[in-house]
Amino acid sequence: MSINRRQFLKLASVSTILGVGSAAAITSISRSGLEASQSSPDPKGLKAKRWGFVVDVSKLKTEEDYQKCIDACHNIHNVPTLKNPKHEIKWIWKDDYEHTFPNMAEDKIMNKELQEKNFLLFCNHCANPACVRVCPTQATFKRKSDGIVMQDMHRCIGCRFCMAACPFGARSFNYVDPRKDNAIKVENKEFPTRMIGVVEKCTACYERLAVGKQPACAEASDGAIVFGDLEDPKSEVRRLIAEKYTIRRKPELGTQPGIYYVIGGGEHV
Amino acid sequence: MFERALSGSNRYWAWIFFLLAVIGVGFLAYMKQLNEGLGITGLSRDVSWGFYIAQFTFLVGVAASAVMLVIPYYLHNFKKFGKIVILGEFLAVSAVTMCMLFILVDMGQPMRVLNVVLHPTLNSVMFWDALVLNGYLFLNIIIGWTTLAADQKQVAPPQWVKPLIYLSIPWAVSIHTVTAFLYAGLPGRHLWLTAIMAARFLASAFAGGPAILVLLALLVRKFSKFDPGQEAIQALAKIVTYAMCANVFFFLLEVFTAFYSGIPGHAHPLVYLFAGLDGHTKLVPWMWTAAVLAFASIALLVNPSTRQNEGTLKLALVGVIIAAWIDKGMGLVIGGFVPNPFERVTEYAPTMPELAITFGVYAVGLLVLTLLYKVAIGVREENGAVEH
Amino acid sequence: MYNSGKIIAGLAVFFILAALPFLLNLGKANAKIEPSINTPEINAMPVKQCVESKEFMRAEHMQLLNDWRDEVVRNGNRIYTSRSNGKQYAISLQNTCMKCHSNKKEFCDKCHNYMAVKPYCWSCHIAPKEEKS
User: If phi over 0 gives left and psi between -120 and 50 gives alpha, with beta otherwise, what is residue B279?
Assistant: First the structure.
């Protein structure tokens, strides 16, 4: 059998594609590393069906009350302070009533005290997160074990679809190298920084929960932020939600945010 | 067949080298972006997609518009499109190439792009968009190249292309529908959260794409011996007319819903775009330019005498293209991010490096288009009379 | 032969370009690279033992690190049980690996430079402070 040049080229290209393809498939199947039984969770770790937060803003009185929660988080997570507000990275921050609850802010004759109140904002760890739904690589995902919405900065391709999807503005993108210009004020050697081109956000201190510690903001807040299992009727967060009037941001969107705000104000509310 | 792209007049080579120079500048700017991050663009925490994604959205429409030639020719046996259907298919190849490049330059970590394939995520519209865009690119390369090769030999195209051609019709609709779903399925982005988004995308695509095609056909006629045919051009102009009317109509539907319902969140993006919000008015002149151009070009297109007059037709088509480009690019993308989830306004404008990269990508697209058209025109010039 | 001058000149240019990497490295020492394990932490160990055997680590550390990061970030597993000695280690590049291998330049970089690979671990993970050598 003799073949001409054209047939040879066709045959060669098809077999190359098949060869390269199957080689890639085989190498991706064979994992030479560890076996599943070799890794296990830390027995000290905190467990829950679904982690959530109750933020009692009546306990946040001074500027410092807010700032110590923000600093606790940003310092241990190496969150940079960037001069250009467009490039800002925020895991937890403060905002006023009007902008925290923009869909309710049209009421100008409501309770003055509430209107002038500031709120602590961070990732809601939604039960039905839009960011997770849109991510093309599962770089952001909801942990099956405890409902935390995680961000895998190793896998993120920086498409920023999650930023468009999140209705709470909880996500920040690394537009610039966070290590440049001494933007990280306090460096925590135990935790990584990030690199340009990936999205980051609050991860509910998954690294602290794993070793039995509360999230940093909750620990620093003197009881203003309570962290617990929303699915456990006996938990502290459930007790607070049952006892007090709480509101969530944009519940009408159906993402089921996991931060409940107690607006307090004593006997009036 | 490709050797036809390797010989040409001095003007041809001057054009090629000009495009290569623009690509070179864009590439240098992109190297800077790779090193320093997307901070060199005008993007921000609040407006996290901008000029790149705007071009992507517009060009998906241009790509999908090839179907406006394929349907009449292959489904309704409209012979007049026989000679130029290849121009539509090659325009689609060029447009999809640019789409992919715009996605790539918009990525924070482009070297990880294969993660989309390594961790396929069926619930992400972005995954499907990558899938349909790649599929459409290959469909058009295969169909265009095979039918042109058959033309060159003056024989009928092989039988196996027919099913691919029929497949390319719903596929063209799918690329733009899926692209619309990127936007239309996000909670809390009022401008985008609308059921008519995909229909609007298709209408503006079938106006803007064929408008570009007519202008290209006129250019081809001017610079080569290949005549796409007066009837074909007029038929396309009619398609542009109807699609542009539908496009403007659909947009007005959005305006009605947003304002008559009285829901503030739905009105804010439109207010920002056409009147400015909290003193921020950067996009207002652009949006009014688009609105005026849209109505003016419709007036020229609907009127048979101005549509049939080539001079006014050209003006109208340029108007359609610019209006669609502003509305579907900047207006749509930026308007979705303003105001932000906190009802605050952060404005956006592309920076110089961002523009250089954008021009670079357009130059790549024009280079692909030039080379493919050179081949197609060469074949047509030899046996322009073929109709199968 | 037509155009023999041009062809020979072209071939010569091609040969030089193709052989350039070899020519440039001609005569340079090509000694075997041995990453240094001379750090206070390792020197203080009674038995010098990594989380797995030296041979395994040499061949598979990249795969191990890949698996480690998925276990921690994606599966919430932070304890690694060694296959070779049954001991348990906290899964952490920064807090386990680099506590012992505090000499990144002499341990990681030396080999990576030799092999011309540029892992981007250190764009995020903070390397231990080292005196300038």
Answer: left
C61 touches chain A (CB under 8 A): no
Q: Calculate how close chain A gets to C51, using CA atoms only, in Å.
A: 11
Please give the full DSSP string across C3-22, using - where no structure is assigned.
Answer: THHHHHHHHHHHHHHHHHHH
Calculate the alpha carbon distances from B9 to A268, B2, B36, B221, B371 in Å.
Answer: 85, 16, 41, 16, 13
pLDDT tier, A14 (very low <50, low <70, confident <90, very high otherwise): confident
pLDDT of residue A27: 55
Q: What amino acid is encoded at A66 in this protein?
A: Y
Structure tokens at C63: 């795969």
Taking only the tens place, the pLDDT of each residue in A207-228 is 999 999 999 999 999 999 999 9
- On whether the pTM is more than 0.70, the answer is yes
**Is residue C92 a contact partner of residue C80, using CB atoms and an 8 Å limit?**
no
For residues B324 and B248, give the distance between their C-alpha atoms in angstroms, rounded to a whole number.
Answer: 10
Which chains are within 8 Å of B by 3+ CB pairs? A
Strand pairing report for A225-229 and A172-173: unpaired
A-proximal residues of B, 106-125, CB under 8 Å:
106-110, 112-113, 115-116, 118-119, 121, 123-125
Chain A nearest C-alpha distance from C34 (Å): 23
- The structure tokens listed for B296 are 């003016």
Helix (H, G, I), strand (E, B) or coil at B337: helix
* DSSP assignment letter at B187: T
Residue A2 in this model has a pLDDT that exceeds 80: no
Contact: A157, B116; criterion CB under 8 Å? yes
pLDDT single digits (tens) B207-230:
999 999 999 999 999 988 888 889
A154 touches C at CB < 8 Å: yes
Chain B, window 344-383: residues with a beta carbon less than 8 angstroms from a chain A beta carbon: 344, 346
pLDDT digits (tens, 9 = 90+) for B89-147: 999 999 999 999 999 999 999 999 999 999 999 999 999 999 999 999 999 999 999 99
Chain A residue numbers touching C71 (CB-CB < 8 A): 34, 39
